[in-house]
Amino acid sequence: MNLYSYQYLIHNFSASNYLFIGLVILIATIISCTAFFYYRNRNNPRFRNLLVLVSLIGALIIVMQTGQFLEQQNSDTKTGQTVTVLKKIAKEKQVPLNQMYASSNNLSDGMTIQAGNHYFVLHFNNDLSNYRLEPVKLVSSPKHINKSSFSLTSIIDNNNDYGTVALKFIVGFIMIVLQINLSGKGNLAPSNAVDQLQNYILGGIIGGVIYNPQITVMQFAVILLIWAVIVFTAKFLTGQSNLLNRFINGNPQVLIDNGQVNVTRSLQSGINANELAFKLRTHGITSVKDVKNATLEQNGQLTVTTYDDESVNYPIITDGQINKAVLDHQKLTETQLEEMLAQHHTRLEDIYMAQFVNQKLEIVPYPTKK
């Protein structure tokens, strides 16, 4: 059993206040120094970013420690009550305060008090307004704690929950960056259904797991890896099968052709008249008669060309797969396309992208193996 000395309780009662004040002063000093360097180098954006970063970290630490400080203040109030009781018992038993010990810094019924060489059990009524002492004998010698120790480990333990959340944020951030880079995208802006679904579920996974203390960082990483495997499996399969690609990602849909609106296709694509008119206005077009071609892309954007513009030419072959919608739009058959490929001495699976421009097939092949 641990018995805490009167000096220990008094020290803990005030130490937290000094630590908090010292921490605030230290952070303010660091921020001030960083601000001074930024002022001296205002034309260098790195110092501005450094100032913002240091300020945010400082604010984070202060907010975290403020919460602990308020909790400590509540604990100090209870410690103050214990100190008051120890003073009364010391006076009653005529024992110096440096020989007074308590088994807890919070008043509670049944706590042990040492006054000199004598031990007592402290009993309280329900509202802790009065007490009585009952002499007792200890089975084993207690451990006397006279000095409090300040260690970095105690601070880390107190902030363990925040540390776990921060680590989960870092893991989630790394996974998002990896998925962006591995998918060849510069950002998370969706270009098809898989990208949109990936953003929704990835956000749900990260948001739902980060604040759940029952899910460990390792489990979080495994969940993210499982989702990454599913996403890249879908990307791989859509690249291998044109049918699966159309099923998952869909095809561009021509809604307006030569000034004529395909109402049936527009409604099938979920585009009503108001939405179509709005999308046209965003392109500065007020009349469908001015539109040569308007195509609804897989990401929901409308690509519009007028009679004054050059026609948008979609690839007729992508990733070794024939785009049949474009093939039909160009009024070509697969047989004709195969004849063109034979003229170029090229196989379909060797083509990265091909477009039909000015009645000619322009081919971009995959790099040849050396």
UniProtKB/TrEMBL annotation:
All copies of domain YetF C-terminal, residue ranges: 241-356
Subcellular location(s) per record: Cell membrane
Domain YetF-like N-terminal transmembrane residue range list: 163-236
Coiled coil: none
Annotated protein name in UniProt: Membrane protein yetF
Protein source organism: Fructilactobacillus florum DSM 22689 = JCM 16035
Annotated keywords: Cell membrane, Membrane, Transmembrane, Transmembrane helix
Top-level taxon of the source organism: Bacteria
Recorded GO CC terms: plasma membrane
InterPro entries cross-referenced by the UniProt entry: DUF3290, DUF421, UPF0702_alpha/beta_dom_sf, YetF_N
UniProt similarity note: Belongs to the UPF0702 family.
Chain ranges passing through the membrane: 18-38, 50-70, 162-182, 194-211, 217-237
Topological relation to the membrane, as annotated: Multi-pass membrane protein
